Task: inverse folding
């Protein structure tokens, strides 16, 4: 739902797109069938596995994922593979306090919404109770609430250009209270998960929640507003999409942009060039600027600078104040995956979800001490933010975004490190980062130590002609990049190294269409291929679970696919779960024992024009009810690990 930059990579730093780099490397290694061959032609010949492995798998593969694959299905409800159950745990408007009744949208106002579970669910973190334990039957479900689908949320309210002007003040305020983050205590009893409604830990974080600004931007002049003249206390969070968890027991929630939530004249803003680079155009998509001055660029020119950060939340302390960690950079954050390196330093991997944007890594200055978990709380305020440059020889370099190094000088508009972080995208442009096909989630395999970065798609890549150097212009299908830190597998991997290896794990699309140029294992079934990967996670044994967003455009359901990352079945996906019409599957997260996989079903029926023509009433299916985004728990009927 966020604004995406139309700027081509060539106009920013002259670096080739990742598709060009991939194709160039294929050409150099001689995998193509001739000077006129395309990746699609190679795929049609049955090439499988790693793009750069040098050989194809000729034998039928034995997957470690032994479940019976779900047959592809696309209808008004969700489906899961035989032998599994997928139960709704909590959804929009559900009670979070004892005594609250069932949701009644017709009477619910902003205050009541602020006390109930939020709207479009995205990233999920399961945090065991008690803190520091590995409990897989009792914990906190921490869920992002990214945005509101007003064509589904409000009766007869079409999603069109005139929508912001039709919002009433009551609707705007209710929408503001439906986003942010929801924390609920949950328990599993007799195999069923449910919310503890009277838990003192249940909490909503919204667009109004006070938040500390920490790190290099705390107190910066460009963070100051009329209601916060010190520039140290922001209000609320917005477009919370991806996330991560820290070893000290906090949750990181990612602000994936704010560009279309502000009104006013961008061209008159003192930071006009920066705002335009971040996609601001005064669209005021949710009508906020008409009722709240802080979203009017003409009245509060610095307010946009207080969004697009990673926010840290302590879910175990309901009285705690969330913290915006500015040392992690300002961008449309889609991920904030935390790894403790073997030397104790904390590493955070992040994608910037927009067309031709970049992949980032943060390395803390200090080390984490497991014997003193509370000492980790400020580690994310001091460290080095870097951006990735992918090379055609299969290496990538992490280029530091440090004031005074290379082009990041005062003469070029970067007088301090705060300037670098406030203008992270411009700093990455300046050092020649590699533009990517909309970087979304990034996750680390707990077994191998490899890092996987999802590129969901990039329909804006153009090419004058098809050739081995640029093989998939208008990438509508997406792919997954594998980044390989040096030093060994698992805990031996050095996530602070300046140079990694890289490989291509999957090129998504339909294997039956050579024009898609796919890269899946040759044994991929008719139900197993996918498009538009969005999020991913790993089970305790290192098997990948991919969530998709955008498959409805191909007349298939979005869902969850399980994939081996090593062995003879490397790159062989199997469909586990299918979402209902109009919905994406997102935010997958396992319990520590791997027996439950939590998944968000976001924006069901969003493909409907209005509530008068809903494509599904999921999950309630009651006459007169509305579709409700919700979290489901996927479990095996026999109670074994999901990926058994």
Result:
């Amino acid at each position: 739902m966020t604004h995406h930059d139309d700027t081509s990579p060539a106009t920013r730093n002259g670096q080739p797109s990742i598709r060009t780099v991939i194709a160039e490397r294929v050409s150099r290694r001689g995998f193509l069938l001739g000077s006129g061959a395309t990746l699609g032609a190679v795929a049609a010949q049955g090439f499988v596995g790693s793009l750069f492995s040098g050989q194809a798998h000729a034998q039928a593969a034995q997957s470690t994922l032994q479940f019976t694959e779900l047959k592809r299905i696309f209808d008004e409800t969700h489906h899961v593979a035989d032998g599994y159950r997928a139960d709704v745990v909590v959804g929009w408007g559900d009670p979070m306090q004892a005594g609250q009744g069932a949701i009644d949208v017709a009477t619910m106002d902003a205050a009541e919404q602020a006390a109930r579970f939020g709207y479009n669910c995205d990233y999920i973190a399961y945090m065991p109770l008690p803190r520091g334990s590995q409990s897989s039957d009792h914990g906190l479900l921490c869920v992002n609430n990214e945005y509101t689908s007003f064509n589904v949320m409000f009766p007869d309210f079409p999603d069109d250009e005139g929508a912001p002007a039709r919002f009433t003040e009551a609707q705007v305020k209710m929408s503001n209270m439906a986003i942010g983050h929801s924390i609920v205590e949950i328990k599993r009893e007799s195999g069923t998960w449910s919310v503890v409604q009277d838990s003192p830990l249940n909490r909503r974080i919204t667009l109004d929640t006070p938040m500390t600004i920490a790190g290099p931007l705390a107190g910066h002049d460009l963070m100051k507003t009329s209601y916060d003249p010190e520039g140290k206390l922001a209000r609320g969070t917005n477009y919370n999409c991806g996330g991560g968890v820290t070893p000290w027991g906090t949750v990181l929630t990612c602000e994936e942009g704010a560009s279309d939530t502000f009104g006013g004249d961008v061209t008159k803003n003192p930071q006009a060039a920066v705002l335009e680079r971040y996609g601001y155009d005064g669209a005021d998509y949710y009508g906020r600027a008409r009722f709240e001055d802080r979203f009017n660029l003409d009245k509060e020119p610095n307010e946009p600078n207080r969004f697009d950060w990673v926010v840290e939340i302590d879910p175990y302390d309901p009285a705690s104040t969330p913290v915006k960690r500015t040392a992690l950079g300002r961008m449309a954050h889609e991920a904030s995956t935390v790894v403790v390196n073997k030397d104790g330093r904390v590493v955070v991997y992040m994608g910037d979800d927009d067309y031709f944007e970049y992949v980032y890594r943060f390395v803390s200055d200090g080390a984490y001490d497991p014997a003193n978990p509370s000492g980790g709380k400020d580690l994310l305020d001091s460290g080095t933010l870097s951006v990735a440059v992918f090379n055609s020889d299969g290496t990538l370099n992490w280029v530091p975004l440090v004031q005074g190094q290379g082009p990041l000088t005062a003469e070029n508009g970067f007088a301090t490190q705060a300037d670098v972080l406030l203008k992270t995208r411009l700093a990455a442009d300046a050092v020649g980062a590699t533009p990517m096909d909309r970087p979304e989630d990034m996750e680390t395999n707990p077994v191998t130590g490899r890092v996987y970065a999802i590129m969901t798609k990039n329909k804006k890549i153009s090419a004058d002609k098809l050739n081995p150097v640029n093989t998939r212009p208008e990438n509508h299908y997406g792919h997954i990049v594998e980044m390989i830190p040096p030093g060994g597998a698992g805990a031996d991997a050095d996530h602070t190294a300046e140079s990694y290896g890289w490989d291509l794990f999957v090129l998504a699309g339909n294997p039956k269409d050579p024009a898609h140029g796919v890269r899946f294992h040759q044994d991929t079934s008719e139900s197993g291929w996918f498009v538009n990967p969005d999020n991913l996670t790993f089970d305790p044994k290192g098997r990948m679970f991919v969530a998709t967003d955008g498959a409805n455009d191909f007349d298939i359901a979005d869902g969850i696919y399980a994939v081996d990352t090593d062995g003879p079945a490397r790159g062989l996906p199997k469909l586990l779960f299918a979402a209902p019409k109009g919905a994406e599957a997102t935010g997958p997260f396992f319990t520590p024992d791997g027996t439950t996989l939590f998944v968000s079903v976001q924006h069901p029926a969003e493909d409907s024009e209005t509530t008068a023509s809903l494509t599904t009433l999921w999950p309630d299916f009651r006459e007169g009810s509305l579709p409700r985004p919700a979290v489901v728990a996927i479990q095996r009927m026999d109670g074994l690990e999901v990926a058994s």
